């Protein structure tokens, strides 16, 4: 990264200068606050009353004064328990004790009355809890307190798994958006990994024992929420207090505490074992002044690792072979060739083996009340993760590799209070991320073999089996991220202002090897046995090495916001945010590409148009907190995932060349490759070829924009009393400028159109049946410029994706520490292209009748984040005799499937992305073999697949048009606290994951529709200019499986 060392140094100096000159920063921006009105005993508002709040745990204090309406407010208070003192000269002083503030809470004190007749201090007990203080969050997010986090069953105790409790979440996707559109914030700074848009593959990025509060926010219109078009997942960590405390914990689960049979009654023989252990200590270094917290947590997980596991895939061998699309005999033959002829080590290649994952996390934090006006926070987080749980799609077990992740993060902050009317928060965060991918076996090329199997009932199936190396190993993903955030709060009368900036500079330093291993393709097992591949493909570095790619990504943000009470019961917030993105560092200029296609590779996209107005109204209808109406609307910018940026530097068409050999294919010497990878045809082979090979290129749109989402929602909630509420919500989102890639080098007009109306971009004369693969289109014949293969253009859609949703929920506070909630969400998401992150060569969208008409039909297809239905129930029982029970239940329908042809039939070289045309067996024009086989399929396939086919007769099957059946999961936890001495106690717990499966091995599973590819290409008919197909009569099979039950026991000692 030397090329950008000066940029890094200048940036660091700039951030340091801002930090030192500002003399201000923040501990934790939490969104928590206290507001209220002060009156005298004649009900007249008191202007100038002094309101002071003190955090009883840390000694943090701040104060303000009431305005002419008697109104006061505190914003962004550190979470904790507060005593509130309200005083005015000549009137009685009132002390409101023990007010608990959690993440996002807003305690509203509707009427504080100071008496003129009494002079002694009056102590008042306020029943304050998040159930009643969460008005700001109703309908816009789901919050989980620290106590709930400690009680609710989580298999790896990863706090981000709590996302699933949001009725609007679909895995890591929120409100129908792409998963990459989810923002992640820890203590007010981003902990999102830009490479893939998530947090980590480890069991957890930080121990749940250190998390104090957690929130999933989908419709918060605060301008401080940025770069999360789908929503933002927030968490804040615990801090030390004046009370020295600590805990030591351990959790364990193993085969004896897990399922013995699968849902088909087959015995589970693989090993399962988890162990987690750690400790946390916190307390005062100087009371009310300096506090610390340190923790360490380790999680080790042994799980089965499966590839073509016949014993796991169906009730019997015959059905398992059909479900997997291959017979055991054919798989054995492939393995035999690998071991006896190709020199692969003898070992298990299919079935199941055991692997062990390991997560280690250390955390430290110091909070320093420098004086009454300044609160300083310093924290450090370390993560190390080893993961052998990696397998190529359709790959055998020897394609396994290991990933190692190592992260460091340091944050420094200081909250400075200038006066009762203004304060500032500043955060500086520096984090490093490294992920290394390693081989477990010899480094060799990739191998692919097409296999057609005849099953015991006479039906056939075709699949492709992968062996050899992984496409992207070895690999290093690296980034160094500097973040600077500043928030200035100012109060003027009844107006509360916020001005801020949010900046993120990511120094990317990836070393990627995708496609550089070499790939040999075999048309059949016989060809594999004869070592006669029909194709060799490899991306070759012309200088012989693969250097790291360094790309700075600069994200800038500024914002302003005003919040006020238009009336005592009507709160208005309006704001404006701007986000800018600069992808710095030009890729190498490709002069030939510019000459042939008029496209420049050496671009520096700068998106400066993300102006985001936002507004939010909260109407307390009767000014008593019983009926609350909320409406909000605004624009939200999203965020990049960075692998396309890296590949724009690698795949510039100058430093690498792609060889795609279909004739005179080199004969692979697999045994030699096992000993010496350098013998794979490479640079010397490239230079020996008689013609210059075309290049594969990825180009960034010089006008590349960040996706921008408009959100609005309307909510109504009614509090029947202090412990029961219900609400209803409507949501609408539309997103412009979604990312996608298309091929600039594909001919704009098709060469011909097939009998089903499919546009094909290679001449029909190039397709024949002389060999087992000659009827398939060749990429070279569909090119505009013969100097290039695919020229992938990373750009934005010219259509918008949409999300429409509704949600109803009810919640009950059960005594002091119990809680129950039930919610149902209905949603529909359409128009989002499938690419979200990762290797751009896998960013191919599903093609219907015409590649270039994608925008006309793709905008109406279901998005990957679509979730038609979701039910969530959460129960935390009140404590009784030291016992407590917690339970979570989810039922949802959110997975979809598409129906494809197995091979590329348009000339774009992307197998399995051309949607199937659904021939009508009742139509006389349908080819006879398809008519017969289609009727056979309809008679035997699943009801879901049959309905999908019949509803699309005579049409191309829409992407994501098939809906998978509902799924459900019920988890349960029982905890017992045993008091030992004063604050010392032992806690015992048992967690059951998938309770129904524990009760009966046939229960707790779910059904999925598999083998959804409808056709196998068998040839080309020159007379009709159409491909010939064989129907997959096993398509649409129902397969039942489960996340099998496991029981974990845990023990924690705390004081």
UniProtKB/TrEMBL annotation:
Native organism: Chitinophaga polysaccharea
Keywords: Carboxypeptidase, Hydrolase, Protease, Signal
Biological process, per Gene Ontology: siderophore transmembrane transport
Keyword Glycosyltransferase: no
Domain TonB-dependent transporter Oar-like beta-barrel: from-to ranges: 236-1004
Superkingdom, natural source: Bacteria
SUPFAM superfamilies recorded: Carboxypeptidase regulatory domain-like, Porins
PANTHER family, per the entry: OAR PROTEIN, TONB-DEPENDENT OUTER MEMBRANE RECEPTOR
One annotated GO molecular function: siderophore uptake transmembrane transporter activity
Cellular component aspect of the GO annotation: cell outer membrane
InterPro entries: CarboxyPept-like_regulatory, Oar-like_b-barrel, TonB-dep_rcpt-like
Name of the protein in its database record: Carboxypeptidase family protein
Signal peptide: 1-27
């Amino acid at each position: 990264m030397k090329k950008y060392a000066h940029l890094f140094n200048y940036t660091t100096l700039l951030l340091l200068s801002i930090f030192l000159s500002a003399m201000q920063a923040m501990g934790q921006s939490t969104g928590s606050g206290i507001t209220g009105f002060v009156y005298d005993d004649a009900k007249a508002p008191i202007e100038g009353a002094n309101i002071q709040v003190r955090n009883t745990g840390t000694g943090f204090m701040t104060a303000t004064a009431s305005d002419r309406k008697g109104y006061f407010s505190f914003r962004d208070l550190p979470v904790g328990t507060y005593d509130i003192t309200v005083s005015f000269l000549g009137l009685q002083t009132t002390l409101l004790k023990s007010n608990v503030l959690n993440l996002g809470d807003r305690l509203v004190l509707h009427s504080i009355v100071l008496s003129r007749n009494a002079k002694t201090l009056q102590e008042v007990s306020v029943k304050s809890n998040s159930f009643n203080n969460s008005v700001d969050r109703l309908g816009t997010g789901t919050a989980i307190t620290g106590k709930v986090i400690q009680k609710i069953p989580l298999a790896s105790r990863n706090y981000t798994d709590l996302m699933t409790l949001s009725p609007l979440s679909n895995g890591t996707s929120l409100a129908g958006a792409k998963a990459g559109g989810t923002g992640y914030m820890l203590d007010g700074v981003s902990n999102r990994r830009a490479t893939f848009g998530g947090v980590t593959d480890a069991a957890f990025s930080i121990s749940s024992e250190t998390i104090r509060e957690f929130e999933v926010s989908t419709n918060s219109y605060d301008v401080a929420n940025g770069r999360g078009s789908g929503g933002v997942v927030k968490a804040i960590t615990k801090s030390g207090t004046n009370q020295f405390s600590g805990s030591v914990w351990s959790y364990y689960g193993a085969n004896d505490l897990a399922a013995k049979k699968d849902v088909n009654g087959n015995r589970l023989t693989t090993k399962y074992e988890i162990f987690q252990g750690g400790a946390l200590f916190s307390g005062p270094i100087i009371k009310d002044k300096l506090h610390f917290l340190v923790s360490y947590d380790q999680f080790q997980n042994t799980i089965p690792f499966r590839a073509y596991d016949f014993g796991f895939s169906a009730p019997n061998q015959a059905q398992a072979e059909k479900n997997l699309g291959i017979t055991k005999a054919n798989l054995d033959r492939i393995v035999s060739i690998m071991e006896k002829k190709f020199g692969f080590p003898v070992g298990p290649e299919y079935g199941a083996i055991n692997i062990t994952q390991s997560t280690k996390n250390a955390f430290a934090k110091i909070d320093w009340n420098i004086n009454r006006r300044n609160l300083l926070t310093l924290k450090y987080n370390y993560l190390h993760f080893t993961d052998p749980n990696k397998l190529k799609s359709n790959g055998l077990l020897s394609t396994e590799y290991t990933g190692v992740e190592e992260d460091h993060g340091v944050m420094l902050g200081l909250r400075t209070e200038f006066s009762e009317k203004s304060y500032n928060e500043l955060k500086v965060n520096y984090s490093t991320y490294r992920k290394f991918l390693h081989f477990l076996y010899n480094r060799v090329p990739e191998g692919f073999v097409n296999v057609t199997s005849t099953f015991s009932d006479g039906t056939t199936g075709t699949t492709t089996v992968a062996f050899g190396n992984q496409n992207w190993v070895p690999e290093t993903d690296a980034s160094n991220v500097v973040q600077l955030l500043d928030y200035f709060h100012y109060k003027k009368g009844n107006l509360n202002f916020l001005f801020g900036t949010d900046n993120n500079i990511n120094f990317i330093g990836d070393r990627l090897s995708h496609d550089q291993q070499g790939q040999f393709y075999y048309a059949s097992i016989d060809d594999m046995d004869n070592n006669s591949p029909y194709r060799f493909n490899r991306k070759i570095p012309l200088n012989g090495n693969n250097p790291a790619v360094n790309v700075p990504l600069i994200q800038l943000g500024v914002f302003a916001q005003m919040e006020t009470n238009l009336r005592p019961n009507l709160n208005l917030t309006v704001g404006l945010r701007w986000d800018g993105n600069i992808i710095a560092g030009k890729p190498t200029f490709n002069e030939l590409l510019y000459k042939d296609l008029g496209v420049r590779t050496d671009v520096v996209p700068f998106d400066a148009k993300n102006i985001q107005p936002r507004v939010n109204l909260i109407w307390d209808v009767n000014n008593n907190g019983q009926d609350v109406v909320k409406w909000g609307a605004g624009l939200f910018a999203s965020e990049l995932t960075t692998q396309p940026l890296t590949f724009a530097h690698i795949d510039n068409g100058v430093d690498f060349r792609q060889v795609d050999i279909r004739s005179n294919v080199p004969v692979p010497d697999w045994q030699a490759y096992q000993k010496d990878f350098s013998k794979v045809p490479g640079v010397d082979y490239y230079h020996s070829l008689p013609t210059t090979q075309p290049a594969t290129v990825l180009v960034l749109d010089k006008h590349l924009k960040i996706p921008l989402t408009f959100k609005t929602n309307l909510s109504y909630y009614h509090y029947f009393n202090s412990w029961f509420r219900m609400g209803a919500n409507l949501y609408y989102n539309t997103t412009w400028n979604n990312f996608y890639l298309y091929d600039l080098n594909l001919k704009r007009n098709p060469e011909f159109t097939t009998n089903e109306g499919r546009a094909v971009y290679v001449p029909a004369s190039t397709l024949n049946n002389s060999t087992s693969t000659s009827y398939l289109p060749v990429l070279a014949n569909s090119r505009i410029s013969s100097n290039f293969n695919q020229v992938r253009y990373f750009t934005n859609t010219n259509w918008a994706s949409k999300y429409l949703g509704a949600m109803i929920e009810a919640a009950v506070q059960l005594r002091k520490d119990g809680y129950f909630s039930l919610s149902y969400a209905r949603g529909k998401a359409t128009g989002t292209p499938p690419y979200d992150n990762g290797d751009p060569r896998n960013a191919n969208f599903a093609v219907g009748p015409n590649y270039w008409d994608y925008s006309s039909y793709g905008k109406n297809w279901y998005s990957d984040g679509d979730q038609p239905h979701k039910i969530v129930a959460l129960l935390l029982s009140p404590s009784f005799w030291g016992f407590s029970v917690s339970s979570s239940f989810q039922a949802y329908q959110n997975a979809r499937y598409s129906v494809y042809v197995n091979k590329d039939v348009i000339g774009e070289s992307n197998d399995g992305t051309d949607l199937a045309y659904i021939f009508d067996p009742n139509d006389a024009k349908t080819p006879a073999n398809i008519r017969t086989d289609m009727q056979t399929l309809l008679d035997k396939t699943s009801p879901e697949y049959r309905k999908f086919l019949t509803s699309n007769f005579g049409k191309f099957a829409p992407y994501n048009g098939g809906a998978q059946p509902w799924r459900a999961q019920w988890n349960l936890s029982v905890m017992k606290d045993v008091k030992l001495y004063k604050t010392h106690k032992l806690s015992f717990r048992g967690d059951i994951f998938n309770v129904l499966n524990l009760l009966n091995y046939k229960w707790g599973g779910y059904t999925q529709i598999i083998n959804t590819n409808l056709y196998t290409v068998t040839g080309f008919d020159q007379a009709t200019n159409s491909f010939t197909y064989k129907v997959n009569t096993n398509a649409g099979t129902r397969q039942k499986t489960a996340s099998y039950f496991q029981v974990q026991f845990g023990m924690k000692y705390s004081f």
